[in-house]
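TL;DR need C-alpha cells for one chain.
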Amino acid sequence: MVNSNAESSRLIKNALTVDVEDYFQVSAFEPYIDKSKWDLLPHRVEKNTQKILDLFDSKGVKATFFTLGWVAERYPDLIHRIVDAGHELACHGYEHIRVTEQTPEQFRDDVAKTKKILEDISGQAIKGYRAASYSIGAKNLWALDVLQELGFQYSSSIYPVKHDLYGMPDAPRFIFEPINNQSFKEIPITTIRFGDKNIPCGGGGFFRFYPYAFSKWAFKHVNDKEHQPAIFYFHPWEIDPEQPRQQGLSLKTKTRHYLNLNKMEGRINRLLSDFAWDSMENVFLKQPKNL
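>> reply
TL;DR here they are.
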C-alpha cells in the first residue's frame, strides 16, 4: 500500500496521453474551417508529433497517442514511429466528429473504420478510444456499449465537469466499469474536488490557463491524498506557437486556442520530470491498482 506522503507522487505512475490532430481540426474551428479545405492547409501535425516523440524519448517515458484516422492515412510513417518507440496507439475517430453529432450507426461506422485503419498500419490491436472533445456524456452513454462491441477495452471520453461544450459532472472521477458484467472500462479525465464541484485539471487548455504550480499541486493531491493515477492530455498543436493564425474567430475561441502556446512545451517538460508516467494501457489495464 502506498503511504500518503510526498514520495507517492513518484511511486504512482500517471497516464500520459496525446490527442493526435492538427490545429485546423479542433472542434472550436468547425464554424470557420470546412473539412473540404483541410488538405489545402499547411499540415504541421507530423512535425509537432515528432517533436513530442523526441521529448518523450529524452525523458524515458511512454504514452498513449489517441490518433485520428485522417492523420494516420496521410502519415503512416508517423504511426510506425509511434509504435516502434514503444508507445500505445489508440483511436480518436476518423476526422474529429463529436459523438453528440452522430447517430449510433454513424458512430459505429466511424469508429470501426478508424480502428481498422490504425490496426492495418500499425499491425497492433487498438484497445483504447477517446471521443472528440470528450463528447460522451449522460445523453449518449450508448456509445460505450458500441465501443465494447467493437472490441475496445477502454474509453477515456468522459470529463466529469460542467462545461459549455462537454462534461458529465455526476460521473465517477476515477476508472469505472459502465457496462454491467463486462470488463470494458471508462477512464475519466482527471479533476480535483473543491466543495461540491469538480475542477478540470487534466491538461489541454486548462493546463495552459492555470499557473504551473496549481497543476502540480492538483496532480500531487490526486496521487498523494487520493492514491489514484492521474491522466494528462495535450495536442501536438499546443506546442506550436508558430502555427498559422486563423482570422475571424470569436474572442472566446481565440483565447482558448492560442493562450500560452509559447509556455506549453516548457511546462510539459517540468511535468514529465515532476511525476512518473506511462501509457493508458500500462497504467490502467496491466496494473489496475497501480500500487
